[in-house]
Amino acid sequence: MAQPQIITAPADSALIAAWQSGDEQAAAELVGRHARVLARYLAGAGAPDAEVDDLVQETFIRAFRSVDRFRGQCQFRTWLLTIGGNVLRDYGRRASRRKVLPLDDSLHDRRGDPHEHAVASEAEERLAAGLKVLPRLQREVFLLRAQQGLEYDEIASALATTPGAARVHYHHAVRRLKEIVE
Amino acid sequence: MNLHELAQRLGSSAAERLDVEAMQHRVLAALRETPVRRRTWIEEHLLRIAAAVVILVGGGLAVRQILPRHQDLAGGHTSHLVADDLSDLSTAELQDVLDHFDDMVGANTVVPDSSDLHQLDAQQLRTMLRSLEG
User: Which residue of B has its CA nearest to A149?
Assistant: First the structure.
């Protein structure tokens, strides 16, 4: 009896190599794998709902253009999330220059589904509000740890810090967020 | 609900709303519009090369600034041979210069007896002048 053939999906590193040699489908596959995670991270970090798609797109483009600089120091997904953080920060700067309401007040787009807004718990709203007042590094470490479930080593590699420092940032963030949420 | 659970719920509605297939098309279209330009070795290392050149040139200039002072302190300077200025003199004029060489360079230099000089030609006289100048 023939053994069932197990087809394993290529690793991110293989897709990156394929993209570097001109394979567009490899880039599409990477987008497919990570777009939702990236959207969740950006929204959690304060991206306005109406801007999430554009910010996801910009993050991928920036990542693909600078993929030569990705040395495998962390997972591709983690590297992508840190680029997303930079894209979001740049967006915040542009928005403040244009005097458009920055991340804060447009965090939850009220034009969305009313049912969705009703479902969003008050605690979740408070957490989102609390994240906005955290220093950037604390916010990013908290999200990478609590939302994305990454280890401190991985977070440290992505944010160019030490695991010990990442742990400290996380605990500061948790302490402040607990005060706000509870 | 604890903080972790709340954090994991954050942004989930935005993620669900995202049209992944449309995003793939958008990203690929944007990449096609302005293709990624692969950087050559020289572009990647240009900054390092420029820094090395600046250091070398700067170092060279600094050494040039310092070295002449040392030479000055040691009394060193580019020597100028009087004999080089005598190339267009005739044999008789050269013999005359040698006759008065003591007066020109001081009494420490021994000039051969002038009677011997008359047997030398112009080239030999110039060679002698150079040797006397050191």
Answer: B8
